[in-house]
UniProtKB/TrEMBL annotation:
Superkingdom of the organism of origin: Bacteria
Signal peptide region: none
Protein name: Abasic site processing protein
Organism: Jeotgalibacillus malaysiensis
SUPFAM superfamilies assigned to the protein according to its UniProt record, in alphabetical order: BB1717-like (SSF143081)
PANTHER family: ABASIC SITE PROCESSING PROTEIN HMCES, DC12-RELATED
EC number(s) recorded for this UniProt protein: 3.4.-.-
Length: 214
């Protein structure tokens, strides 16, 4: 799973890396401990152009009765995403890139949990495969997102039994292309190479200070 991540890159660096066109209404605030229900930055594609967007983390499907479902849908299993009612329409046409500086995972050891911070070894942003949706509540429209997960690679298997789907730059166009077929997309939903990542044990104090825990 992926239940916490950070994004602290400068906006200019994100724009250069993801090659998106800026929007005046896009607001970006770096966050070292982003958790479900908070606003997450993402990149979407409209008519062949990439734009930044801000989504509430925790996908709320259009048929939801209330927004509480988002606390259960901040991740989507890649093995079933094409069939699950909450995700299948978004998988067909509302895919996005979700950038991160790092993500956090907790390794169980008896009754204790040791947090790890996972980053790319080359220092580039991590790019999660994401989906987004729009949900209407009276006159309000809430746009939300989810991060796809898959089986762990060798590095992550020692920490947790799931990991986020991490996309490489050469697959961004394919993931964002609304015309891409399901079979080709499924081939992208696999664990990245262990050599791509580093995992460092960190203190849990940073999460206690913000009231966050796992």
């Amino acid at each position: 799973m992926c239940g916490r991540f950070s994004l602290v890159e400068a906006m200019y660096d994100l724009q250069q890396y993801y090659q998106f066109e800026m929007r005046e209404d896009f607001l970006y605030t770096p966050n070292r401990n982003l958790s479900p229900s908070q606003q997450a930055a993402a990149i979407v594609q409209v008519n062949g152009h990439r734009y930044p967007a801000s989504f509430r983390w925790g996908l709320i499907p259009p048929f939801a009765k209330d927004e509480k479902i988002g606390y259960k849908t901040f991740n989507a299993r890649s093995e079933t995403v094409a069939e699950k009612p909450s995700f299948r329409k978004a998988f067909q046409s509302k895919r996005c890139l979700i950038p991160a500086s790092s993500f956090y995972e907790w390794k169980k050891s008896g009754k204790d949990k040791q947090p790890f911070e996972i980053k790319r070894r080359d220092g580039e942003p991590i790019t999660f495969a994401g989906l987004w949706e729009s949900w209407r509540h009276n006159d309000e429209i809430v746009r939300s997102c989810t991060i796809l997960t898959t089986e762990p690679n060798d590095l992550m298997a020692d920490i947790h039994n799931r990991m986020p789907v991490i996309l490489e730059r050469n697959s961004f166009d394919q993931w964002l292309d609304p015309e891409e077929n399901k079979e080709s997309l499924q081939k992208l939903l696999k664990p990245c190479a262990s050599e791509l990542l580093t995992a460092e044990a960190i203190s849990g104090d940073r999460f206690k200070k913000s009231g966050a825990s796992q």
